[in-house]
Design brief:
Layout (H helix, E strand, L loop, with lengths): L3 H15 L4 H14 L3 E2 L11 E7 L2 E7 L9 E7 L4 E12 L2 E9 L12 E9 L7 E12 L27 E4 L6 H9 L7 E10 L4 E3 L5 E4 L2 H19 L7 E7 L16 H12 L4 H9 L2 E5 L2 E2 L22 E3 L10 H14 L4 E3 L12 H8 L2 E6 L1 E3 L6 E4 L2 H14 L2
Parallel strand pairs: 1-2, 4-13, 4-14, 14-18, 15-19, 16-17
Antiparallel strand pairs: 2-3, 3-13, 5-6, 6-9, 7-8, 7-10, 11-12, 12-20, 16-18, 19-20
Amino acid sequence: MTPAPHRSHTDDLLSFIAASPSPYHVVASAAQRLEKAGFRELRGTDDWTGATGGLFVSRAGALIAWYVPEGAAAHTPFRIVGTHTDSPNLRIKPAPDTGTSGWRQIGVEIYGGVPLNTWLDRDLGISGRLALRGPDGVPRSRLVQIDEPLLRVPQLAIHLDRSVNEGVALDRQRHIAPIWALGEPREGELLRRVAAAAGEDPADVLGWDLMLHDIQPPGYLGVDREFVVASRLDNQVSVHAGVTALVDAATGAAQPAFIPVLAAFDHEEVGSGSETGAQSPMLERILSRSVAARGGSDEDWSRALAGAFCVSADMAHAVHPNYSERHDPDHRPLPNGGPTVKVNVNQRYATDSTGIAMFTAAAEQAGAPWQPFVSNNAMPCGTSIGPLTAARLGVTTVDVGVPGLSMHSARELCGVRDPGYLAAILTTIMVGD
């Protein structure tokens, strides 16, 4: 059976995932854990002068958190863990109430690289946030999470599509509207249902960011329960590990030698090009402002970046037993062998030898294994926020990730030991010598 420390970490990970069906819930879950550890939230309009200790800034589906040890100089280098909060899914359209042939349906759009067949015939709930009328005309936000079997995208019976097992797909864009009732569409029906779940008056809802999620809870799989199976492992495994590492660095017996930072961005699955994505100036502005808040100058800011190191943590591919030819023959990571270090000479990943050396040293110190990963050169290589962060801040960056199967599926798989290994390595990097 799996050793208790790993099981404890993954038990906590599964609770985190279950509470976080949308990027906005991921931020709320992370903020709750940080506040419990003594971190406090800063607003952009606050005066940050002299702020030390555990601090964080949240904005929609993104969160930047850091810890300033007592007496830390303004030029103290950063140790950054970069992750993302979003996952591929189905997102509800602005005018969602639709239907045909006597069925009431909900209009959705495809967000990110979704293998649509994995969303068929699953019980789906609704999550996200509502933008509501607020006092003095300032809108307020409210999270909503409906973990009920409310919708379903029904698969066409094989009797009506004999070619389905021959790889001939339907026009999925036209056939993914989930059903949820019989009868003609009723304008405003979805809004009324979601507002009621949030305890709000539908008349106060001015807008929303809503999406569908599989309501099957996360769990364990395998003869010895050696695998974790859940929605949104990509990339909540890394967010959870980053939060765990930051809290451990801030509350451990040894004060960090650096400024540990967690950067959890939104919209990575669609290119990171938003105000809360890795291409935005969000991280740069917050970190530079934190230096200035401690009395630092432009020179101190430059020195802090010059000594900085970033770990971009995102899920990775384990070798698939049924498609091993799709993987590099000499790089075939397996679950429970430790997180992978991703390398691509065309800079789809930002890893270089310096980053590998720093990550390897931390893994050795943490007593955790790791595995090298290179994509099959005959196939396109994925990417992560690593190259964006490296280019934006000009800091040494290494791309890593827990290896898994069924990436971007409605239900993914990874090893039970690897999330804990990743958290232990990230803690070592954040604390430093």
